[in-house]
Amino acid sequence: MRIWIFNHYAAPPDCAAGTRHYELGRVLAAAGHEVTVFASGFSHFSRREERLAPGEKVTTRTIDGVRFVWVRTLPYTSNGYRRALNMAQYAARVLTAQRRLNRPDVIVGSSVHLAAVLAAWLAARRRRARFVVEVRDLWPQTLIDMGALRANGLPARLLRLVESFCYRRASAVVCLLPGAAGYLTAHGVPADKIHYVPNGISDFPRPEGPGRTTGPDVPDRADPADRAADLIDRIRRFRKDGCLVAGYVGSHGPANGLATVVEAAAELRAAGRPRVAVVLVGDGQEKAACQRLADRHGLDDVLFWPPVPKQAVPAVLAELDVTLFCLRDVAVFKYGLSSNKLFDYLACGKPVLFASNAPGGPVRESGGGLCVPAESPADMADALAALAAMSETERERMGERGRRWVYRHHGMTALADAFLTAVSEPRTEERR
Predict the structure, then answer these.
(1) pTM
(2) Are the C-beta atoms of 333 and 360 separated by less than 8 Å?
(3) What is the pLDDT of residues 362-373, one digit of tens each?
């Protein structure tokens, strides 16, 4: 089967970005399917062009059997009008780029943003392919609940129209959030059209090194391996000084609520409680504000570090004593979570401190960590103190419970089978 996936932010594991479709794709490619991912060469995480050489508008590389088609899009530095133009340009350029390829059997339009989904519908219509929507983020509901859009404003109403249009035209809707089916059915999506295929953890052998690659080389970037090695050295120095080291690896965006982590570290310092060093790895629009907050509190044991590539994340996580996952208290999270980094945390076998009001979740289900309310520095500080008071053996046992659970329930091989079923199987009325 020929499967195309329109995912603006998709990436292989050589940088700090989402690798869901690379992981699913390489499992499916090994089974004989042809998977092509259309993505932007401009990275939302590093805020620079990472894939295309100067003057190029499109380039193609095949990595571990997954073909990536990268298109050039407008650079931006914040969530303003240039990012909106970047999204629109992505949609336009993938529609041009897809013309040179053989007709697919199915085209998957994957949110975050709806321009990618709408482009997938247009391409599917032109190529007479099946059209599938994948809901990774509930737009525009997330934007409304985050306060970025007014519920009755014109932009939100227009996005609602596009959302409903795409759901109606899709032969299937793949959702990543465990509670998203309730949202989707409330918006008119028939239950037989909905397939739950969450994120997961790789249980499929990866080639040694960066992977088998064909196509033009990626433009030179600063060596990320050196960056990860330096970070590991800093973590070891914290531990040598007698600190419990708690770490976060991921986006520093408005929804992540990392100010809570900084405030918790300040509470621990003020109370003279066990020494805990906090390492925050990544980038995003809230990073500078969090750094200023740490400076105001004089926190020399809170370390901010630039992003590391996905393939370096396991080595970094292995050095930590505790991993940190936090989110703001936002209404849309009532539909649950399917976070890549949360599964990475559990797979590394270290306890997870989960600070979120989202219901259920793998940390609660697995017993692989401690759970506290969102946006509560006091509760987070108490949990960090409790983890510091545990013996290393107790923390290892807790982490091992999470590791076993995530490989049993979220292995990528089984998820790839579920994804293939979702994109292959026509709805009941289509079979009649």
Answers:
(1) 0.86
(2) no
(3) 999 999 999 999
